[in-house]
Amino acid sequence: IQCAETFKRSDGPKVVMGILNEFDHNINILNSGFAVVAAAASGNEILKEAFMELNIDELLVQLIVAQNGSNIQSLFDALRVLLTPDDTRVLASQVSVRHRMKYIILFLVLLLSDSWRYHLLLSDHFF
∠ CA 45-39-60 to the nearest 5 degrees? Predict the structure, then answer.
């Protein structure tokens, strides 16, 4: 717990997000960075919230689409940790539900935009 508090106080989430955003094309850095996210956020609702405030959800979805999810296992580990509630308190549960809803909306937008692009592609070729 003390390490997590030190990580939060020293702007650890912000530093990690800066690295992930800057090196979003480097698979090794992404794997290492998301491993840090998963380890830091595991069992810590405060750090989960800190990462969510820094829009890690948007980065995760963007990378899943851009990389086709390949070779970034720690990305999925981080996603699982961020979406899994660690606390039975009502407030913490509400935060987790809000996070899940945000991911669902992002994935639906991506799904719909991909479907729309596919529809336009078909109509260009067949109509």
Answer: 80
